[in-house]
Amino acid sequence: MRRVWLLAAAAAAYLLAAWMVAPGFYDGFAPAQPYNWLCPPFHVAANQPPKSGSLQIKIIGGVSDANSAFTDDVQVVIGFLPGAFDATGKTVIAVDIKPVSPCPKPPGLTFVTNTYLITAGAPLVKKSSLLMRYSDIVPAPSTVYYSSSADGPWTSIGALSEAQPFTIDTTTDKLGYFAAGYPTNSVSHSSSTTWLLPLAIALLIIAVLVAGIPLAIMRRRRAGVEGEPDESEP
Q: What CATH number is associated with residue 161?
């Protein structure tokens, strides 16, 4: 009987730990590498400044080549298809990615990544894929926001349903300012699902253990009755 209660207590402790763990903990099998913040959260003790990135895209036969630009810390990656740019009169197209300072804080939105300015020497004519990495110590973003100015307005350009842990993917047909986040008055899209698996497992364990308590009591009583001497015998 004591063993059953110990197991139930352990399951309850697991339930409490699952509830207290930071959002994003169960999003991957291993913690993400430390995020380089431009404006770090107050609870970040150690921080490295974010990196920039640049790329020279070749023009081959009047068509811009396929390539990807990324920051040196790989916190932002943007991929271009062949012919993604209007290459008229160009021999090469320069792409630059830079973190934006001061950090924009638009009303009604919470950004969980740095804001980055992506520029190029020619306009886009095809959609390009954009990946942004975020920290494992903040709620996961629900979308990527775009603006033509650091002062806004900011527009959601969505997010793809499939992404690697601690990354958010989307597509864009224009360059400018980008940041990942969510509306301030809403809950991060993965914060609710973050709890479902550990909570479901813990509740299932507790239910099984509680259901087994009456059976354990009945077995103990039966063993006690069978072990008692028969007083009717001489």
A: 2.60.220
**Residues in Cβ contact with 112 at an 8 Å cutoff, skipping those fewer than 6 apart:** 134, 135, 138, 139, 140, 141, 180, 181, 182, 188
Tell me the DSSP string of 17-51. Answer: HHHHSPTTGGGSSSPPPPP--SS--TT--S--PPP
Q: Evaluate whether 79 touches 98 at the Cβ level (below 8 Å).
A: no
Q: Which residues contact 190 (CB under 8 A, 6 or more apart)?
A: 23, 24, 27, 139, 140
Each residue of 39-91: pLDDT tens digit?
999 888 889 999 999 999 999 999 999 999 999 999 999 999 999 999 999 99
**What is the spatial distance between Cα 130 and Cα 163, in angstroms, rounded to a whole number?**
11
Number of Cβ within a 10 Å radius of residue 93: 22
Full residue range of the structural domain in which residue 203 is found = 2-22+190-215
Residue 142 belongs to some domain of the structure: yes
Residues in the chain: 234
Residues 178 and 64 in one domain: yes
Residue type for 5, please? W
Per residue in 9-26, pLDDT (tens digit) is: 555 555 444 444 444 444
